[in-house]
Every structure is written in C-alpha cells, then in structure tokens.
From TrEMBL:
GO terms for molecular function: metal ion binding; monooxygenase activity. Coiled coil: none annotated. It comes from Paragemmobacter kunshanensis. Belongs to the fatty acid desaturase type 1 family. AlkB subfamily. The chain crosses the membrane at residues 12-29, 73-97, 109-127, 230-253. It is found in: Cell inner membrane. Residues 110-334 form the Fatty acid desaturase domain. One of its GO terms (biological process) is lipid metabolic process. GO terms for cellular component: plasma membrane. This is Alkane 1-monooxygenase.
Length: 379
C-alpha cells in the first residue's frame, strides 16, 4: 500500500507539537491551588490525550523525506527550549512547594508526581530526540534533561546498547513475551546501568584507554546529577531533596513504561553463531494516533525510528501492518494497560502471536526467544 505524503514545512503542521507547553501552567496551578488541581497533569497526559486521539484519529500520511533540515526550524525549536522551561519550573517548585503552608504532604507529593509525569513523558522523550542528533548543543541539552531525573546513563544505554541490540538477549529493554511490567521494571533498573557502563568501558578499551579516562561520560553524568541533588537541597532543604527524588522516580517509571510497550515480545531472528538479522520496521510497535504523537513528538512511529535512528521526528515515517506491527491504541492508554499485566497480556499476546505467524512462519519453537536464551550477539 502506498502511503500519501504531507507537507511538513507548513507552520500549521508544526504548531501542534508545541502542545507539551500547555502542561506547564497545569503543574503551576496544582502547586498554587492544591486540592483536586494536583490531578490535572496526570489526567491530561493519560485521559485527555486518549480522548483527543479518539477525536482527531490517525495521521496516516508521511513526510516528504527530501524536506531540507532548514525547513524544520519550528520542530527543532520546541526541543531546544524545553530544557530551560523544565529547569525553571523544577527550580521554582523546589523553592515554592516546601514553603507552601497551604499544601499538606499528600498535595506536595501530588504536585511532584505531576512534575515527574512532565519530566518523564516530555523531558526524557525530548532528550531522546536530542541525543540522536549530531550537534553538540543538542547532545548537551539531552544530558542536562536526563540529569534532572537522575537517569543520565540512559543516553549511553540507548545509543550504545539498545539501538545496536534491540530484539536480542543483549538488550535489557526489549520486554520478553509474557513478561509483565512489574517484573520488567526492576530488571531494567539493575541491568541498564550495568550494560551502559560496560558499553562505554568497552568503547574506551578499543581506543586503548582505561575506564577511568576523563572521556568516560559517566564522570559527566555523575557531576550533573550531583549538581541537581545539591541544587534541590539548597532550594528546598531535605524536603526539597525528597520531593526532587519523587519526581525523578516518577519520570523513570514513565520512561520504562514506554520502553516496555515499544518492543514487547518482538525479537530479531537468530541466524546462528551469535548473528542476528538487521533491525527492520517489524521489530518495533507502531501507532499513528495524532494527539499522542503531538505530545510525544512522533515517538509512536517507533518502527521507523529504529530503522533510521538519526531521522528527525517530523520526518519519521509510518508503516502499515504488512511492514510493522500495530498497537491498537496510543501510548497513553497502552501504558495504563501495561500496569495491569492480565489486561496487557490479553490485549498484546494475541498480537505477538499474529506477528510471529506473519513474519516468521517457519519458526516453530519460540522458547529460547521467550526466555532470552538465544546466544548473545557478537560485540
């Protein structure tokens, strides 16, 4: 099937991707008013965008890949300004909330839960876009965003491990078939920092340098994260530091929920002797819902992102079911389903089985794929 193209150079096409900025006044309102207003951010990101997906439908057109990068300025701009916006909001909350006598403990935690939803669903997602770019400014902004949630190793893990080994036993964040999120989450919290460190140490070793060389980005990660903790302590005291850690934990949970659903049950064919087929669009779940793609800057076109990792988000392509497996709904509602493993498996396991019949009809024994028992791929 031929997918029609859309002119992404039009300003009207770019502006909906700025919708993430509308979440900022919601968290400010929650901090100032308290009460039920602390629920506005999670309600908007999960339920409102699910409703908007139903109302706006799918974006089933693709951008013209010949579009020059100079024409993508409005798209790039929202990712470039996000760190100062998020940082300013976080700094203000760390100063204001611990001193806000009208907020009780539950309300303070609720405000920073909402902040964590923003820094996870938007901030980490924008850092993901930025870390894939070549410009030094964009990569630094990615590092700064990740430091605000104490998850700096994600850059190394994502670029050095996930994109190389997705769909193989070497990739921790490829969720295995029948693995519930509540088993997946603690596993990746342990395995991802280790795999990120090993990947950076191995790269240094190939250059003839020891792990303690100053080129190891973990020194930068540690310094930035320590700086954020000290800033939180200085602005809000021990209460501020505790609230900062709450928002970081919520952001990490948001990230790993998305990681879980992006590749659940999808594996690359083992070709023998530690060799695996190349990454194809079929190895990531794809979905086209407009509103959630506006919020998540086309992250849901994940099949194309893995196929062409350096492609900027407005140019990411969509695929039909003949080329890539399709999620039934957008990420907001799918992440809710992932938190309820029986519901998730009821929705997704039949789709994984259909994917296997469609793309790998000759494989009859999936046990090694299900349990991650195939040989580790060659480094």
């Amino acid at each position: 099937m031929t997918i029609p193209t859309v002119d992404v150079q039009r300003l009207s096409h770019a502006l909906p991707f700025w919708i993430s900025l509308a979440l900022v006044p919601l968290v400010v309102l929650g901090a100032v008013r308290g009460g039920w207003t602390i629920l506005l951010v999670p309600a908007a990101t999960w339920w409102l965008f699910t409703l908007l997906d139903r109302l706006t439908g799918k974006e089933e057109e693709n951008a013209d890949l010949s579009t020059p990068e100079a024409a993508l300025g409005w798209y790039r701009a929202v990712t470039l300004i996000w760190f100062p916006v998020q940082f300013a909001l976080l700094v203000w909350l760390l100063w204001y909330v611990p001193r806000a006598g009208h907020l009780d403990l539950i309300e303070r935690l609720g405000v920073f839960f909402g902040m964590g939803v923003i820094s996870g669903a938007v901030g980490i997602n924008y850092s993901h876009e930025l870390m894939h770019q070549k410009s030094r400014l964009e990569r630094w902004l990615a590092d700064l965003l990740l430091a605000t949630v104490l998850y700096s190793h994600f850059r190394s893990e994502h670029l050095r491990v996930h994109h190389l080994w997705v769909g193989t036993p070497r990739d921790p964040v490829t969720a295995r078939y029948n693995e519930g999120f509540h088993r997946f989450f603690p596993r990746v919290l342990v395995q991802c920092p280790r795999s990120a460190w090993s990947a950076e140490a191995a790269m240094l070793a190939r250059r003839g340098r020891p792990w303690w060389d100053r080129a190891n980005p973990f020194w930068r990660y540690g310094a930035l994260q320590a700086g954020m903790c000290l800033l939180a302590l200085g602005l809000g005291g021990w209460a501020g530091l505790g609230l900062f850690l709450v928002q970081a934990a919520v952001a990490i949970w948001q990230l790993e929920l998305v990681n879980y659903i992006e590749h659940y049950g999808l594996t690359r064919r083992h070709l023998g002797e530690g060799r695996y087929e190349h990454v194809l669009p079929r190895h990531s779940w794809n979905t086209d819902y407009k509103a959630s793609n506006w919020l998540l800057i086309n992250l849901q076109r994940h099949s194309d992102h893995h196929y062409k990792p350096d492609r900027r988000f407005p140019l990411l392509q969509t695929y039909d079911a003949d080329e890539a497996p399709q999620l039934p709904l957008g990420y907001p509602v799918m992440t809710i389903a992932a938190m309820i493993p029986p519901l998730w498996k009821r929705i997704m396991n039949p789709r994984v089985k259909d994917w296997r019949r469609r793309f790998y009809p000759d494989i009859t024994d999936w046990h090694a794929y299900n349990k991650g028992l195939n040989p580790m791929p060659w480094q």
